[in-house]
Structure formats: C-alpha cells, structure tokens
Amino acid sequence: MTLELNSRADFTLDGARRVALGGEGVIFGEAAVARMTRCRESFMRLLDDPEVVIYGVTTGFGHFAHKRLTPEERLAQGARGHHAPATSFGEPLPERVVRAAALARLTNYIEGHAAVSPHVAIKAAEMLSWPELPPVPALGNGSPGEIQPLAHLYAPLMNETPLAEKDGLALVNGSPFGTALLVDGAFSARRRYELALKVFALAWEALMAPLAHIDPALDSLWEDPFEAHVLQSLRAYLDGAPTEGRRYYQAPVSWRNVPRTLGYAFRVAQQVEEAAEISLRAVSDNPVYIPPDEANPDEPFGRVLSNGGYHNAKAYPLLDDLAAASADLALLCERQVTKLLDGNISRLPHNLVEEAGVYIGCTAFSTVAYAEQARYAAQRTFLPGAEGGGFGQNDVAVPTFFAWRKEGEAGRSLDSALALLAVVANQALRITGREAPPRLKDFSAEIDRHFPPLTESRLMGPDLERLQIHFTESLYS
Predict the structure, then answer these.
(1) Residues in the chain with pLDDT < 50?
(2) 183-272+314-474 — its CATH code?
(3) What's the pTM?
C-alpha cells in the first residue's frame, strides 16, 4: 500500500505508523503537486525584488547572514546542497525513526511553505520507497536545529538531484527528527503500559491481593479516566479468579498503588500521542514561506518569515515524562518481586524461592538493577547551557536526541523488570497449583514459551532476556 498525501491534515499518527513500522511508501496527490508548483513560482517572483531579504536565500548562512548575495551567488549557494553539517557519527538511529523523520519532512512541502522545487519534494517522498534509507547517527547531534541529522539523511538526494534557491535549505532545516522521536515514543508508550497491566494483573493473582482494592466504586471516586481505565482493566483480567481465600486485609502498597501510578502513565501516553499528532502537522521550516492570498493584496507573491519553528519544545519534556513513568513502574515491579519471594509477607510457600533445587531468589537482585537503571535514565533533560549551543547565532542546541535515548533506556529497563515480575508471578501460581485467571491464561502460556517453566536448576538469564526482547519487540509489531 501507499499513503497519498494532499494536505497537512493527512499527516497522522496512524499514517506515521503505516510508513515507519509498516514500510509503506508515500506519494503526493495531484492537488499537492499543483499547490507546490504555484507556491514555487510565486516565491521565485518574490526573489525578483532586489530589496527582499530572505535568510539563506538572498543572504549567506549562520554567521554569514549579514552578507547579501547577488543573483548568481544565491543560485550557486542553493545548488551546492548542505553537506557541511554532517559531522555527527556513531551508532545509527533505528530505521523506523528515520522513516518517521522522512515522512515528517514532507509536511513543510505539501502546502508550499518551504517553497521547495516540486521535483525535489517528489524525490524526497520517493525516498520512502527505497530499500533502505541512509544511516543517521543517533549521537553527536548538538546543533540548534536538526541540520546535522538531516544532512546525513538527504546527502544522496542532494548529490543526485538538481537544486536551486532554497532547495537545500528546505531539506536540512526544520524539526522532523524531533517529531519522529516523539512519534517513536508514542508508538511504544500505550502498548508498553497495556503490557504492564497484564503483568501486574498476573502478580495480583499470584499474591491473591484483595479485589476490594480495585472495586468499581473507585472509578468515580478518584475522578480520573486513566485511573478508571486501569481499575476496569485489572477487574477484567481478574474476572473469574477465586474470590475466596484472599489472604490479605490490605495488600502491600506496591499493589494498591498500581491503578494510580499506571493511570498516570496512560495520561502521559495520551499527551505524547496528542503532541505527536500536532508535530506531524506542524510547519517547521525556517525561513517559512507564506503563500499569497486574497486577504493580503499588498503581498502578491507572498512573504517569508524567519522563525524558531525548527525547535520542537514539546518533544523532550514529554519523552522525559515517559522515562519517569517507566522508572516508577519499574520500582513497583521490583517491590512486588521482592514481596512475592518473601513468604513471611506474601504468605506463599517458602519453596517459591527454592523448589527441588531450583533457586529463583536472585531474580530480586536483577529487578533492583533494572529499576535503578530506569531511574538513572529518567533524569530531566534541559536546554544545553551557555557553552552548549555552538557559535554565532546558534547559541541554543536541541536536546531531543538525548531525551529519546534516555526514554528508550528507561522503557527497556521497565520491559526487563516486567519480564522478571511475570516469571516470578507465573512461578508462584505453579508452586501453589493454581492457574491464571481465564483472560490471563494465554498470556501466562506466552510467558512460558519464552521462559520455559523451571523444573530444574538452569541459567535463567538467557531465557529472561528472550522474554524481555519479546516484550519490547511486541510494542512495535
């Protein structure tokens, strides 16, 4: 399938999922090509005015912005492309992130706001049908905008495609990677928390925690739709579980806090999804072209505005929020593993820890480590300080790549903690001769497929890792 784009309204999170995860190509519709053509023609007529000043078009770049260019110089500058910023190197970004960025790049083109030559825009869209996109480093991107990663992404296109005034600038300026990194967080967040719901429900049954802790009366008393979603989901997963023999008057805090802590995580996930949708539709070009319209008869060829659209200020704080949510949930996993393994607290048989020579007590040590790793990753991201923004005009760098890396590390640490809790909860059910509730039986069997039941002592790390990888990969399926 191919995603057809005709306006900015066509840039959606669902479309990004199809392109970034599903590998679909994109094309511009006829209306979009016609609009881009009209805007390019108007922009070129605007350049006929000898008094017009447009950054990077009639002037030089960066600390050469004060220099006015002759028509010959501006054409030569536009034709050179913009390879110089490609100074970052190292570990590449995942293909899904680069594909999302290549899609988000097209937002500036589709309604003419980049004033890019239509053949360049069409070539940029065709890149999403290439067997693979150019590698883009995940590290070393410390520029104020995204000229470094974009120079890597569009180097082949700039080498092979004729460029004119503003074309190279339209390729390497803007914030499509900020959008892509936020979109990537949106891809995994809700699914990760739905996975956590199942693991916590399994642990709820392993402890035989009171069902009163998730009573329907709490849905309205707490006045929060996200917490209500968790309460309702836990009740659904535990439907059919025995109501008799619940050992606790009140379960440990790490069980009772799940609906509120996980509820907040779902709230953050929705905020990330909303911001990703906005960012996908937002024009981030600098300078940005405002096409002519009937409301401004004094500007028959439109106008151009220098602006800060290349800085996505929503992306890195929200990625930080996802990392923080993962750290909090990983802590709950660690506490629950520890409590399940302690028969004095869980009232489970002490042979949960050691049955027929099978010792699983060390799972608590690993869960502590992953919870701490998530906490370490979930440190707040700020704009780089006075020494972190380069030189000249470029005095504030973009921190989104740092926030995305930390969010990914915190998320994978949570996946690891969830894998450990899932295995311990499954073992608790097995040791006590119980089955998972009906709606969790398939999930319990899924855990067993990746971490075969413990019947004799074995090295558990490889199987735990396999389960964690399965959990993480399922978020992007």
Answers:
(1) none
(2) 1.20.200.10
(3) 0.95
